[in-house]
Amino acid sequence: KKYLDFGNYKEYFFQAVSNSSWANEGYLVALSVPQDGEFREALQKLSQSFGIGIILLDAANLSQSEILSPAQYKKQMDYAVMYELAEKNRDFSQFLTTITEYDHKNPHRYLSEFDEVLDDDAMAKYLVTKGILSDGKDGTI
Fold first, then answer.
1. Backbone angles phi, psi at 122, to 5 degrees
2. Model confidence, pTM
């Protein structure tokens, strides 16, 4: 998300809960999270109650991103939810097939089925293209 505030954080948080209910861990990632102590405390309470972590993403310097609250790791994935999602969503079903059959010795599969890992320059261009960062011509990041 671009930003979290008192007006949207619960909606976005429970969207993250729903989207990651099947997974070992889940995170809500935002470019902007207020420093306000009351707001951060409210986020922490939700995070601890539902196990969803919070990441403050530094789009200008990804390695400087900060985990505000770690996700709780679930040892067992929720296979019933995974099955239900796979029945409803062809892309998710294909994703499960891909990770089940993954073999690093078969590069044509993983090169075509996984997103490319971008180097720093390509990532910077991507962030500008997607409107996450400015191109710097106006003096902003």
1. -65, -35
2. 0.77
